[in-house]
Design brief:
Aldehyde Ferredoxin Oxidoreductase Protein, subunit A, domain 2; alpha+beta; Aldehyde Ferredoxin Oxidoreductase,  A, domain 1; homodimer; 16 strands
C-alpha cells in the first residue's frame, strides 16, 4: 500500500499514486536522490518552478527499530547548485511511514504561503500567510493547537529565512516536546520550500496502519542486535559520551588534536574551547538547574539520546539542541567563548529557520571582512538578528558564507561547492578533507564521517595527518549513503563499525521490512548507486573535477598548531570516485 | 625593444624583461589571454594572491592607425570565475606602446593602496591610500596635477567599488579631456586590481620612441584603407549615426524590433524608449546648450567619434559618455525613461568605478525582488549611491545581478556564467543569444556582435528570429577576438564587414607593424587560437557545456511583443565550438 503523494503547488492539488516499480524498496536518501535525479532538470533554477522538493522516510523509519526516525529531504540546492539530501530526526517521518507515504514530491509554485495537512483521509491545503514573518517558536504552538497538539501531529515548516528564499534556510521539524528545533539544515532546502509557497506540512497519522514488515523474525533479530550494539558502545550507551555531553563532547577532543577551526579557519586551536565544550554545557546546566541533566532523544525510539538543552542563569530553558557543529560554528569559528551568547545565536537560528553551520561560517567570513572583531559575541548576535529582519545585511549572511565572501571581497572562504565547511579542519584531518572535496553535497561531514577512525579510534585509530585516505573516503561515503537510506541516524555508525553484530542488525532490519536478502555487499552496492545518481545529477548540472577542490588558501596557508597545509594532490582526490 | 613589465605588488618591485619568443607578435586580447592562460592557476581565487592582472595595447595601438587606441585587460574574473578580457578606448595604451611595453603583468598582493608610475626611466611606486574612498572625478585632477596634466600622462585606476573588491568593479581610464570615463568595465577586473592593492597606474611617455613599424608602406596602405572605409560607412562616417547620436542610436532600432529588454527582461518593448534614445540625447543637448553637438573621440586617433556628453538643464556637463548599453541598463531595463535620472546613475557609476551594465542589471533584479518599483528613478539613484557608500545593500548590488538575485531570492536573473546580459533580448535576436551562451566571457555582446547583420543589415540582413545562427556566432567570435588583438575598436566591424578594402586594410596595418604576411585566413586562425586558449582556461576552471546556457526562465517565459521563447537546442549551441 506504499504510495507517492505528489503536490502541485501551482494548482494546490494533491495526488496519491502507487510507488512505481522502479522505486520499490527505495527509501530515504536513495529515494529522494533517485527522484531528484530522474525528475528535476539538472540545470533548472533551484528557486524556479521546475525544481522539486522530495521527502522520504527511511526504510525502517516508523518501526520499532531504535534510532531510526530520520526524514530525508531532497532537491536541487540553491546553495551549491547541485543535488542535495539533508535529513533530520523527528517523529514526522514515522507518521508519514505509518500513512504508507513513501515519498512526498512537491512541484510548481504558489502565490502566497500555504499549509498542507496530511492524514489518513488525504491531503488538503489552507492559507498560511497569517503565520509568516514570525519566529517559529511563536507559530508552532498555534499550529499544534489547531491540529490537536504534539501527540497527534508533527510539523514540518520553514522560518522567515525560507520565506525569504535565503540559500542557507533549512527545513524545520519539531522534536518530541514540539519544539521547532530539528533540521534538515544544510544546502538551503528551506529556500526551495519557500519558493514553492509551502510554509507547513502537518502530518496526522491517527487511524493509520503500522509499517508493513515482510519478515518479522528477521526484523526483530536485527532490531535487537542494533539496540544491543548501541547500548553497549562507549559513544552511544546510556550516560556514555553522547548521552552525557551531547555532540559537543567533541570540542575538547578536536581542539586537542589541533583541528578545531577557529576565527574563520585561521588556526586549529581555540583558547576558549573548554568554555564551550559539552562538559561545560553539562556543568553549566548543573549549576543553573541544580540537576545533572542527561540528554534527551530528538525523535521517537532513539536510544542514544544525545540532544541537550541549555539553560539561562535563572534555570529557564534557553535553547535546544546546542550541537557540536553549532557550538563550534557560532563559537570557536567566530572566536566566541561565551555559551550564553552562542546559545542565543543558536536559538535565533532556530527561530528564523536557518542552518547554524552556514550562518556561523557567514559571520566568520563577515568578521574576516571587517564587520566585527573575532570574539565579539554581542555583535554576532546582532548579525544573526539581521537575518530575521531580512535586511540587506541579513540577506547577505542568509545567502551563506560564499555569498558573504563575495559581498565583502573576502577570498578566505572555507567552502566546497559553495557550502561552508563544518567543524573539522581538513588540513589537520586529511580524511575529512577528502570527504569535503568529493561529496556530492559540498563540504559536509555527514557525507562520510571519517572523524570516527581519525579522531575517535572507532574501527581502529588512523593518523589524521596521514594523507592516504582515498579508500576510506570512498567507503565511508558509500556506507553513509546506505545509512541515510535506512532511516537510521548517522550516529549508529560508531556501534556498527566497532560491533559486527550491530552491522548485521542494520541489514537484517532492512531485510525484515522489505523481504530482501541483502548482505554486506549490498550495503556498498546500494550506497554506490545512490552516490552515482548524485554524481550524475551534478555532472549534468555542470560540476567537474574542478569543483572537487578545497579552497585555494588552504593549499598555501599553514594551519597552526601543526603548521600543515592541504597537500593531497588533485589526482589523488579524483581517484575517490574515478 | 618590446618588453614585459612584471609588477610584484607583494614586494613592490618592477621588472622589465624581453618579450619571450613564444609571445612575439601577440598583443591585445591575444596576449592577455595567452598570459592568463599560461600563468594563472585556473582554479585560483580571483581575489587571492595567485590571480594576475595583465594589460596589453593592441598590435597597432599607438600608431597613426585610426580608431585603434584600445587597451586590453585580462585576468580571472571574480564575476564569472572564468577568464576575462575587457578593453577600453584611451590614450593610456598608446603611451604604453610608445614605451615599448607590450604587457604589464601585475602579481601578488600589497597591504594598503599604491600608485604605480611608469615612464621612460622605469617604474616606481608611491602610497595612494590618501586617494582612496573618493569619487574618481575628485581624485583624477590632483593626480593629473602631480604628474603634469592630461597632455603628459594618462591614468588607469579603480574607484571605491574596486577598492572594496566588488565583483562588478571596472578598470577606469581617462578620455582625452582627462575625464575618468572610459572603462574596461565588465567582469570585475577592478576588484582584481583592488585585491592587489593597486589604485593607479600613471603612464608618461615623454621621450619615448614611436611604435616600431616593420613595413611602413604596407602599414600606410592599410591605414588609408581603414580610414577610408570608416569615413565612408553610414554607421561610422562623420555626422553619421554614431557621430550624431552615439551608440544610443540603437534604442529606437532595437525597441522597434521588439528586442529592447525592459523591466528586467519582461518585455522587448519599452514605452519610454524614444525619451532615452540617442536622438533624444541630441535634441536635449541642443535645447539645453543651444548647439547641435556632434560627438567626440574617446581616445586619440579615433575618426568615428561616437562619445556623447549629456548636459543639465542649465547647460552644464552632467555625464560623458552615456552609451546605449548604459542608457538601456539604467533606463529601459529598470523601466526608467528620464534621461537626467539615467545620466545621474551613469555619472555615479563612473564616480564609483563600476560597470553600468552589471549595475543596471542588479538594480532591475533588485526591483524584481521588491526593493523598488520599476520606473522609480529616484529610488534607483539611491540604490547606486549605496554602492559608493559600500553599505551591505551597495555590496549586494556591486557584486552583480546574479549575487543580487541570490540575496533577494530572485530566480529571474538574465545572465550567462554570472554576467548579466546586455541590451539585446536573446529570445528576439537569436544570434546574439548564441553569442551570450557560448562566449568565454559570460553574456557579452562585444564577444560577437551579431547585431550588425541581425539588426543593422551590415554584411546583409539576417532575420533575428531565425534560429540558424551557429556559423554566424562562431565566425563573429573568431573575428572579434582578432579585432580585440589589433587594438582597434569593435566599431570598425561595420566598415570592414561591408567594405572589403577596409578588411584588407586591417590586415595590412598588422602586417605593416609586425612584418607578417597574414591573410584573411590568419584572422580566423588567430581568432580561433585566442578563443581556444580562453575555452581551455575555462574548462580547467570547471566550466562545462552546462554553463553555455541561457537562464532557464527564457526557455518557458514568452517575450512580448513577439511572444517568443529561447528555443535553440542545447545540442545546437554545443556545435558552435564543438
Amino acid at each position: 500500500m506504499d504510495r507517492f503523494l505528489r503536490i502541485d503547488m501551482t494548482t494546490r492539488t494533491a495526488t496519491f499514486a502507487p510507488v512505481p516499480d522502479k522505486y520499490k524498496g527505495r527509501a530515504g536518501r536513495w529515494l529522494t536522490s533517485s527522484i531528484v535525479h530522474d525528475e528535476v532538470p539538472a540545470t533548472c533554477h533551484p528557486l524556479g518552478p521546475n525544481n522539486k522538493l522530495v521527502f522520504s522516510p527511511g526504510i525502517v523509519t516508523g518501526t520499532s527499530s531504535p534510532t531510526s526516525s530520520r526524514i530525508s529531504v531532497g532537491g536541487k540546492s540553491p546553495l551549491t547548485g547541485g543535488i542535495k539530501e539533508a535529513n533530520a530526526g523527528t517523529g514526522w517521518g514515522g507518521r508519514l511511514a505509518h500513512l504508507g507515504i513513501r515519498a512526498i514530491i512537491v512541484e510548481g509554485q504558489a502565490e502566497g504561503f500555504w499549509l498542507l495537512k496530511i492524514d489518513k483521509d488525504g491531503a488538503s491545503f489552507e492559507a498560511a500567510d497569517s503565520w509568516t514573518g514570525e519566529k517559529l517558536s511563536e507559530v508552532y504552538p498555534s499550529v499544534f493547537d489547531q491540529f490537536g497538539g504534539a501527540k497527534a501531529v508533527d510539523i514540518c515548516s520553514i522560518g522567515v529565512s525560507g520565506e525569504n528564499r535565503m540559500s542557507s534556510a533549512g527545513i524545520c521539524f519539531n522534536d518530541q516536546k514540539g519544539r521547532p528545533s530539528r533540521y534538515a539544515g544544510r544546502g538551503g532546502l528551506g529556500a526551495v520550500m519557500g519558493s514553492k509557497g509551502l510554509k507547513f506540512i502537518v502530518v496526522d497519522d491517527a487511524g493509520a496502519e503500522s509499517v508493513v514488515i515482510a519478515d518479522q523474525d528477521t526484523f526483530d533479530s536485527g532490531r535487537k542486535k542494533m539496540a544491543a550494539a548501541l547500548t553497549e558502545h562507549a559513544v552511544t550507551k546510556p550516560k556514555g559520551a553522547l548521552n552525557s555531553y551531547g555532540t559537543a563532547v567533541l570540542v575538547n577532543i578536536i581542539n586537542e588534536a589541533g583541528a578545531l577551526p577557529t576565527n574563520n579557519f585561521r588556526t586549529g586551536r581555540f583558547e576558549g574551547a573548554a568554555k564551550i565544550a559539552g562538559e561545560a554545557i553539562f556543568e553549566g546546566n548543573k549549576e543553573r538547574t541544580g540537576a545533572e541533566l542527561y540528554n534527551h532523544a530528538c525523535s521517537p525510539g532513539c536510544i542514544i539520546r544525545c540532544s541537550n538543552t541549555w539553560h539561562r542563569p535563572d534555570g529557564s530553558e534557553h535553547t535546544s539542541c546546542l550541537e557540536y557543529e553549532s557550538a563550534w560554528a557560532l563559537g570557536a569559528n567566530c572566536g566566541i567563548d561565551n555559551l550564553d551568547q552562542i546559545a542565543e545565536m543558536n536559538n535565533l537560528c532556530n527561530e528564523f529557520g536557518i542552518d547554524t553551520i552556514e550562518i556561523g561560517g557567514a559571520i566568520a567570513v563577515a568578521m574576516e571582512g571587517g564587520l566585527a572583531e573575532f570574539g565579539d559575541g554581542a555583535k554576532a548576535i546582532e548579525l544573526v538578528n539581521e537575518i530575521g529582519k531580512a535586511t540587506p545585511l541579513g540577506r547577505i549572511l542568509g545567502a551563506g558564507a560564499l555569498a558573504t565572501g563575495k559581498a565583502f571581497g573576502v577570498s578566505r572562504v572555507p567552502h566546497v561547492k559553495g557550502q561552508n565547511m563544518p567543524a573539522y579542519e581538513p588540513r589537520a584531518i586529511k580524511g575529512i578533507g577528502m570527504t569535503y572535496a568529493i561529496s556530492t553535497m559540498g563540504a559536509d561531514h555527514t557525507a562520510g564521517y571519517t572523524i570516527a577512525p581519525e579522531m575517535l579510534g572507532v574501527s581502529g585509530k588512523l593518523d589524521p595527518l596521514d594523507p592516504n585516505k582515498t579508500e576510506l573516503a570512498r567507503n565511508f561515503q558509500y556506507a553513509t549513503a546506505f545509512i541515510d537510506t535506512t532511516g537510521h541516524c548517522l550516529f549508529i555508525a560508531f556501534a556498527i563499525l566497532d560491533i559486527a553484530s550491530g552491522f548485521e542488525g542494520m541489514i537484517e532490519e532492512c531485510n525484515g521490512v522489505l523481504g530482501t536478502k541483502w548482505t554486506a555487499d549490498d550495503v556498498s552496492r546500494i550506497g554506490k548507486e545512490v552516490i552515482d545518481l548524485e554524481l550524475d545529477f551534478n555532472r549534468k548540472a555542470g560540476f567537474t573535477k574542478a569543483d572537487d577542490r578545497l579552497p585555494e588558501f588552504m593549499t598555501y596557508e599553514p594551519l597552526p598548531p601543526h603548521n600543515v597545509v592541504w597537500d593531497i594532490s588533485d589526482s589523488e582526490i579524483d581517484k575517490v570516485f574515478g
